[in-house]
Structure formats: structure tokens, C-alpha cells
Write a structure and sequence with these properties.
Number of strands of chain B: 21
CATH class of the largest domain in chain A: Alpha Beta
Strand order of the largest sheet of chain A: 3-2-1-4-5-6-7
Number of domains of chain A: 2
Oligomer: heterodimer
Number of helices of chain B: 19
Number of domains of chain B: 3
Subcellular location (chain B): Cell membrane
Shape of chain A: globular
CATH class of the largest domain in chain B: Alpha Beta
Largest sheet of chain A: 7 strands, parallel
Pfam families (chain A): Glyco_trans_1_4, Glyco_transf_4
Distance between the termini of chain B: 65 Å
CATH architecture of the largest domain in chain A: 3-Layer(aba) Sandwich
Number of helices of chain A: 14
Strand order of the largest sheet of chain B: 2-1-3-7-4-9-5
GO molecular function (chain B): CDP-glycerol glycerophosphotransferase activity
InterPro entries (chain A): Glyco_trans_4-like_N (IPR028098)
Distance between the termini of chain A: 17 Å
Domain Glycosyltransferase subfamily 4-like N-terminal (chain A): 24-173
CATH topology of the largest domain in chain A: Rossmann fold
Strand content of chain B: 15-25%
CATH topology of the largest domain in chain B: Rossmann fold
Strand content of chain A: 15-25%
Structural class of chain A: alpha/beta
Helix content of chain A: 25-40%
Shape of chain B: extended
CATH superfamily of the largest domain in chain B: CDP-glycerol glycerophosphotransferase, N-terminal domain
Largest interface: A-B, 38 and 37 residues
Number of strands of chain A: 13
Radius of gyration of chain B: 30 Å
């Protein structure tokens, strides 16, 4: 049954992802969606293709969790990989045949490529891509996306702009579906906090070094003396970042945190210097916490989250000087920060889980037609 | 499924077995032989076996319902979103739409005798002019006709099979041999801005006489020699383009000499560029990830490069072309060296391509006795010039250094010439308008050091005022300095810096 008591034609939802054990990105989204669909009465099965690291304990008992493989695929192609793939497809087929056909949602292309080898008669298929189209092009995923999702009943991009670009690329079934914000913080961040926070992986595409360069410019100009910078995360660039901040004042490199909301409570500005993004969860969490954002104009998703600059400042991607300017502009203007924080919290309500699940149910109705 | 279909497809050329619609995403549709049999609220007219794209009927229906339209037309590529249009807003070329591309509200169609009679009789085209003004018409961009599917690649087939691709075989052999201490200049060589690259090769030869150099000329491209050196050279240097199918070997270093990328894209690029995965862009993205070094002329060029391509590796500041040009500009007898009259000013007419260049005959007729002209194009295509005007393709740094003013349609060479702080006159408004509409990193109207003229008469007036030493061109002196900053100041040692960075990284 749907939330409003109307009959839902298909009550079976199979959510596919590359794995269901990691705690980031698409995995986090599918787990939130699985729990959300289950709460609305759907029979949900969450399927991961291969195990990654230790198994995550899925605390929600409201949906089933399956893994197609007990061991990961070998790196090189060969008979062993072929045999594992055949086994994975067979297991997926068994899972699909365990109940009535419903809707398959594939959060990732690789998982969808497994599903396409199964008999999907009477199933409705929905494909997703959890980043911007430029990331798809950058990571050379676009051709695979076009191939795997071309026949799906719907393909979901994160924003209208991305959906438009995918349509231009030849996907006639593209539409937009935002990722949901799983939690809603009841308390807003301390508006007097003088901390600029970076939350994310320390890797090239997130460009933390640009933020360090911007901080160097800010300090060199003698500005923001009462502000500090916390870089929270780890990744391949942590050694370089540590070396780069050694001679900079009021900047700390901190380990990743499991509860971003707690960190955001004492954050004045979230800095997002990324070169490539989709619909970044860190920005959503910051806006929900009433923290304004200075972000690089790196994707349609970022632009949409910041309401084209109404809930934060958009700066040129990869431009440390512009990032420094944006940080100074926001940090030195208490009224602007308060205004953006208030608008951000209102604006981001559209991404709350309930609202996004409503959109999903409308989509289910559409694909059933 | 509801018993009333959403859409009725009326077959205009029925067949015993219909195969056109079994694959449609929209399942709640019916296929009928005549309009009278149609039960759906929406109708389409098509022959049996029409190759419809899989999602098109649903796309048409969703657009129709969301906009409460009377008529929805698919495959109209204008605006890339569902758009409400009036009948008189269609361009002349799209006034006749194939009847297969149109979804019509049945109740509305019945009320429109003229349209109805035509369509119901099975006309092959839907005439837009027959639509009444009050009709609510939507267009959607999605393709109506299915594109032929590419045959799936056989994953077991050897990529770059030696039997299909001879150069690849050379590469496959070479890549298993140790790397050689060699610099491979893999340069397109057919663009004006590349003409300074031989200077880079000469400088490096002087710096490192022990290191072998290989220059891939257009004649050598895609040959065994090319593949062999791509597989074995330790240092790969390009202007912009590497062969996409050749992966980088471990230990190889790829450097972009910068004569082109940031500069060319400064004018041509815009913040939306990265969001457009056209066939032209895709290879660019796949190349950028493999670059280890880029030579960028200015902080602005670096910012544009990083912003437009998400390039994350090292950038070395400098400009090979600029170095050569500034060195030439210090020569006192440059015009004599180029065998031109040193008493008359020289005007370089630099155009993006010959297609965008205006006819310069009138210019030559008006100023021929006072001014010397030379032509040049970015892509080295041949300009239509009067006999008295030569087109140059070699020694471009020298020609630019000798020039007193540039006339351009926003050629990449303008960014090189800008370093000289001399006047630039921009012509060809159509191109500029196209670029401006989509947004640019550089605003030609507010940042270029010279007037932007609309047509040839205005160009003649601008050149005339420059010759008189007053008027529009002279007024842009203050902009030249800021424009030079954007272009980047030549420090004269770009080759050395690039080499040092390459050695350091490797």
C-alpha cells in the first residue's frame, strides 16, 4: 500500500548496488532508500554484487540484504572471473524469481550490467547515476551508462540539468531524482562559530589543496584572523596536505568523522573546493544544519543545492584566489551568513526523505503505465 | 493496467502483424486500424513497423499531460526541454512534421475539422500552419525514430589487433621494451599556434644534447614509426592531442606544451563547456587525466584550464610562442628580415578559420597604399585574399612581433598578440554573439584592447582612426595592460622551466 492508502501496483522493490557494505556515496543512498521504501510497505531486497571489506551490519530489519558473491572478482579477466560472473547472475536470477516481478532500481552501472544478463520479463527497471554528467564523462562511464540504461524504463540523474545533458547524449528516458537527506538535524549550528570546515576525501577531484592555497592567500592578506580552518578527512593526498599546512596558522588536519552533524554544529562555513561533484551530501547536511557554504561551481547539483548562490557562494572551480575571496566575503559578513543559513535550511527541505520518497512513488506509478 | 488505454496508435498502413510498438516503455497503449476504433484519450498516426524509439510514446504522453497540451511534437531539437510553442514560431524548415512524430489529444482533434480531416485520412505530414493559434502545442527534444544499435564489441577480441591495425602492432611490441631516454614531439602541427613548438625542440636540444628527439610530422602520423616511438619514448610532448587509444606506460611523462590549450579555449570555452559531452569533448576528458604537466601562459590561463577540464596535475608558467614572439620583437630590423616594407605599418588579419574571415579585398583597396596586410588562420586553412595580401603560416611569432595592429575574429593568436600591448580590432559579430550567449571566461566587449566592429565598413573606419592616431582604437590603451596580464607575460625561459619540471617529476 502506498502512503496515502492507495493501492501500489508493484510492492516488490529490488535495489541493486555494486556492494552493500561500504559506508559512502551510492551505498549510503541505497540503504536510506531501502529503509524508506520498506517503511512505506514495499517488499524491499537490497542486493550487492560483491563483498567489500567487512560486512556492514544492516541495522534495519525492514528489508532483506543479499550479496551475489562471497568473494570479490579477481582483478584480471579469465576463467575464474567468468565463472564468478555466471554465478552472480544466477544468484540474482534466483532472487528475482523468489517473488512477483516488481521494480528493479540499479544504483550503479556495474550492478545493472549484471541485471541485464537476467530474465527481466515483467520487471520494470530504473537506472541511476550518482554523480554529474561531467563526472560520467571524466570517469569514462558515459558509454557504459548509455549502453546499460538505454532500455531501462527510466534513467535517473541527480538534477534536471544532468537529466537534460543525458538526454542530449542520447538517453531518451532520463529524468531527475535527487538523493534524499536521511536525517534532519533539529538544532541548527552555532551561528557565532568561526570555523571553516572541509569535509571529504583528500583526493585530487576534491581539490583540498586549492583550499589550502586559498587559506594561504587569506592569511597572506591578513584577513580572517579570528577564523580557523579544519580539514576533516583522509585519502591519497593527506601527506601533501599535512606538509602544505605545516607553516600555516589556525589550520588543523583531522581524522574523518562518523557523525557529520556533530561536526557541523560548530562550523561557521563549509568549504567545498571540489573539481567534480554530483549532489554532494556534505553540502546537503551543512545546509540542513544551517551552515552556509562556499563551493566551487563544479556541477549542476552544487548549483541546485546552493539555489544558484542564494544559500552559499559559488566560486570558480580550481581558483584558489576566488575561493579565498568567497570565504572572506562570507566570513566577514555576519548578516549574509545568517541570511544564507536560514535560506539554506528552508531550501534543503525539498530533499528530506519523505519528499523524495513521494517523488519515487510517482515515478513507480509512471513506469507501471 | 487500466482498461482504457492512455494512447491509441492508429495504423495508417496496417499490416497483419504489427511489430512497431511491442517494445514501447508505455504499455498502456492500443494499436487500431482506424480512428473510429481509438479508445485512448491521445492518438498517434503511424504505419505498422515504424521504427519508434522505445521511450518516445511515454515521453510524448508525459509532456502532454504535464502541460495539458493539445498537440505534442517529438524530435524538435531547438530548446532541449519540453517547450510550449505557437504555430507561427516554428522555423520554415520544420513547418511540415512527419505525422508519426505527433501525439494529439483525441477530443481536440475531433473538434478541429481541418486538421482532423487531413490527419485521419492518413497524411504523411502534419502541417504546422494548419494549427489554429489557440492550440496548445508542445515540442520535446527526444528522438522519435530509434537509432540503429551499434554492434556490441566482442570482449574477447584482442584490442588493437595487429591484423587490423598495423601501428598498434608496433606499439604493442615497443611497449614491452624498456623506455628510451627520448623526447617525442607528438604535435598536430596544423595549427598556427603550433608554429613555435620547433623553438621548444631547439631549446631542449641545446639544453640536453644527449637526449634524442623525435618529431612526428603529419606524414608520420599513424605509422609504425609513430607507434614505435609512442611506446618507447620516456618523454611525450604535445600541443594538445595524444592518440586516444594509446595508454601511458609506467614511467612515461606526458607534457602539454601549452601553446593552444588554455589560450585557445579562453576564447572558445565557457563555464558550461564541461557539461556538454559532445563527441568533441569526450576524448578531451580522457586525455586530460593522463597529463603530468601543462605549460600555461598566465594565472588566468591556468584557471581556465583547471576550470574547464578539471585538470589536477602540475602547471608550469610560461609560453613558448610568447617567448619566441617577444624575442623577435626585440629585433630592430624585423620587417627587413621578413622582406616587407619597414616604412609602412603592418596589419595582421588573424582569423579562427577561413570560413569565418571576411573578404579583405575592400580593406586592401582603401588602405593598400598606406598599410601592409598579411593573413593568417588558426587552422592554417586558406583565406580568400587579393593577390597583394599574402597568407603566412611559418615564423608566426616573428610576423606577430612585426605587426602594428591585429584584426581578428577572436582568433587564439589574439591572446598571443595581446602581450605586445598593441591594438586589436575584433570583427565578425555573429561568432561573438554565439559565444556570448552561452557565456565565456573572457568578455570580448569589455576585456579586449580594441573595438568590436559589426561589419566591413565599421572595420574600415576603425583602421582609419588608428592610422590617424586618434579615435576608437587609441581609446583602448588602458585595457591593453590588463589584457596583457590575462595573456601572460613572457619570461623568456618557458622551455627551460618545462624541461626542469619534466625531469623533476620523472
Amino acid at each position: 500500500m502506498g502512503r496515502d492508502g492507495e493501492t501500489v501496483v508493484s510492492t516488490r522493490v529490488v535495489l541493486l548496488a555494486n556492494n552493500v557494505d561500504e559506508l559512502g556515496g551510492a551505498q549510503k543512498v541505497v540503504q536510506v532508500l531501502a529503509a524508506g521504501f520498506a517503511s512505506r510497505g514495499y517488499d524491499v531486497t537490497l542486493v550487492g554484487v560483491e563483498p567489500v571489506g567487512e560486512r556492514t551490519a544492516h541495522v534495519s530489519a525492514s528489508y532483506q540484504v543479499e550479496r551475489l558473491l562471497e568473494v570479490s572478482y579477481p582483478k584480471d579477466s579469465g576463467p575464474e572471473l567468468d565463472a564468478l560472473r555466471v554465478g552472480a547472475v544466477k544468484k540474482l536470477q534466483t532472487i528475482l524469481e523468489a517473488g512477483d516481478p516488481g521494480v528493479i532500481i540499479s544504483a550503479q552501472v556495474w550492478a545493472m550490467e549484471h541485471a541485464l544478463d537476467c530474465d527481466l520479463t515483467d520487471w520494470k527497471t530504473i537506472g541511476q547515476f550518482h554523480s554529474s554528467i561531467e563526472a560520467a564523462v571524466f570517469n569514462k562511464d558515459l558509454a557504459r551508462i548509455l549502453q546499460a540504461y538505454r532500455d531501462a524504463d527510466a534513467f535517473l540523474a541527480l538534477t534536471d540539468i544532468d537529466a537534460l545533458r543525458f538526454t542530449q547524449s542520447g538517453l531518451n528516458n532520463a529524468r531527475a531524482m535527487p538523493n534524499p537527506l536521511a536525517q534532519w538535524p533539529e538544532t541548527v549550528a552555532n551561528p557565532d562559530s568561526k570555523v571553516i570546515t572541509y569535509l571529504g576525501r583528500l583526493s585530487a577531484e576534491k581539490a583540498p589543496m586549492t583550499l589550502v592555497q586559498a587559506w594561504r592567500i587569506v592569511c597572506g592578506q591578513g584577513q580572517l584572523d579570528d577564523w580557523s580552518l579544519n580539514i576533516i578527512g583522509s585519502g591519497p593526498h593527506d601527506v601533501q596536505i599535512e606538509a602544505a599546512i605545516a607553516d600555516l596558522p589556525r589550520v588543523r588536519l583531522l581524522a574523518p568523522v562518523s557523525d557529520p552533524y556533530a561536526t557541523l554544529q560548530n562550523t561557521g562555513i563549509l568549504a567545498v573546493p571540489s573539481l567534480v561533484e554530483g549532489l554532494p551530501l556534505a553540502v546537503m547536511e551543512a545546509l540542513a544544519s544551517g551552515v552556509p557554504v562556499v563551493a566551487s561551481d563544479c556541477s549542476a547539483g552544487v548549483r541546485e543545492l546552493l539555489d544558484n548562490g542564494a544559500c552559499g557562494i559559488l566560486v570558480n572551480r580550481g581558483d584558489a584566489a576566488d575561493l579565498a575571496r568567497g570565504l572572506c566575503e562570507l566570513a566577514q559578513n555576519d548578516q549574509l551568513r545568517a541570511q544564507m543559513a536560514a535560506h539554506g535550511r528552508t531550501h534543503i527541505e525539498a530533499y528530506r526523505l519523505d519528499r523524495v520518497l513521494d517523488q519515487w512513488e510517482k515515478l513507480f506509478a509512471d513506469v507501471q503505465r | 493496467m487500466s482498461s482504457i488505454p492512455d494512447v491509441s496508435i492508429v495504423l495508417t498502413k496496417p499490416a497483419e502483424v504489427d511489430g512497431s510498438f511491442v517494445d514501447q516503455t508505455l504499455r498502456n497503449l492500443e494499436v487500431v486500424d482506424s480512428f473510429d476504433q481509438a479508445k485512448g484519450a491521445w492518438v498517434m498516426f503511424a504505419p505498422a513497423f515504424f521504427p519508434y524509439e522505445r521511450h518516445i510514446v511515454k515521453n510524448l504522453l508525459l509532456a502532454a499531460e504535464s502541460a495539458n497540451a493539445d498537440v505534442v511534437i517529438g524530435g524538435i531539437k531547438g530548446p532541449w526541454v519540453a517547450t510550449r510553442v505557437a504555430a507561427d514560431e516554428f522555423s520554415d524548415s520544420t513547418t511540415e512534421i512527419p505525422a508519426t512524430h505527433v501525439l494529439i489529444r483525441k477530443s481536440w482533434l475531433v473538434s478541429q475539422d481541418a486538421v482532423c480531416a487531413d490527419v485521419v485520412r492518413g497524411a504523411e505530414v502534419f502541417r504546422v500552419e494548419s494549427l489554429p493559434q489557440e492550440a496548445r502545442v508542445m515540442t520535446i527534444p527526444q528522438d522519435v525514430v530509434a537509432k540503429p544499435r551499434k554492434k556490441a564489441a566482442n570482449p574477447k577480441a584482442a584490442k588493437g589487433s595487429p591484423f587490423q591495425n598495423l601501428p598498434a602492432m608496433g606499439y604493442f611490441i615497443a611497449k614491452y621494451l624498456p623506455l628510451k631516454n627520448e623526447v617525442l614531439f607528438d604535435v598536430e602541427g596544423d595549427r598556427a599556434v603550433d608554429s613555435a613548438l620547433p623553438d621548444l625542440a631547439c631549446d631542449w636540444k641545446l639544453l640536453n644534447p644527449g637526449i634524442k628527439q623525435k618529431w612526428i610530422t603529419p606524414k608520420l602520423r599513424n605509422t609504425w614509426t609513430h607507434a614505435w616511438h609512442l611506446g618507447r619514448a620516456k618523454y611525450l610532448v604535445t600541443n594538445e592531442v595524444f592518440l586516444n587509444r594509446i595508454p601511458k606506460r609506467e614511467g612515461q611523462m606526458m607534457a602539454v606544451a601549452g601553446v593552444g590549450i588554455p589560450v585557445l579555449r579562453t576564447g572558445r570555452d565557457n563555464p558550461d563547456w564541461v557539461l556538454q559531452p559532445t563527441s568533441e569533448r569526450r576524448p578531451a576528458w580522457s586525455q586530460v587525466g593522463r597529463w603530468d604537466l601543462v605549460l600555461a601562459a598566465s594565472p588566468f590561463a591556468e584557471q581556465v584550464l583547471r576550470s574547464s577540464t578539471a585538470y589536477v596535475s602540475e602547471v608550469v608558467s610560461g609560453t613558448i610562442f610568447g617567448d619566441a614572439m617577444m624575442k623577435a620583437s626585440a629585433t630592430t630590423s624585423l620587417k627587413s628580415e621578413l622582406s616587407i616594407d619597414s616604412s609602412r605599418p603592418l596589419v595582421v588579419c588573424a582569423f579562427f578559420t577561413s570560413q569565418s574571415a571576411p573578404d579583405l579585398t575592400k580593406l586592401e583597396q582603401v588602405f593598400g597604399d598606406r598599410v601592409q596586410f598579411v593573413g593568417v588562420t588558426d587552422d592554417c586553412s586558406t583565406l580568400r585574399l587579393p593577390e597583394s595580401i599574402a597568407q603566412v603560416a611559418t615564423d608566426l611569432p616573428k610576423w606577430l612581433a612585426a605587426a602594428d595592429v591585429m584584426i581578428t575574429d577572436w582568433s587564439a593568436l589574439a591572446m598571443e598578440f595581446g602581450r605586445l600591448q598593441r591594438p586589436i580590432i575584433v570583427i565578425e559579430p555573429n561568432r561573438i554573439d554565439v559565444v556570448r550567449r552561452r557565456g565565456t571566461y573572457l568578455d570580448v566587449h569589455s576585456q579586449f584592447p580594441g573595438p568590436v566592429v559589426e561589419d566591413l565598413d565599421a572595420l574600415i573606419a576603425a583602421v582609419s582612426s588608428w592610422l590617424d592616431g586618434e579615435g576608437s582604437v587609441a581609446n583602448y590603451a588602458e585595457r591593453r595592460e590588463s589584457f596583457t596580464e590575462l595573456c601572460g607575460v613572457s619570461t623568456g625561459n618557458a622551455a627551460q622551466r618545462l624541461w626542469d619540471a619534466m625531469v623533476k617529476q620523472s
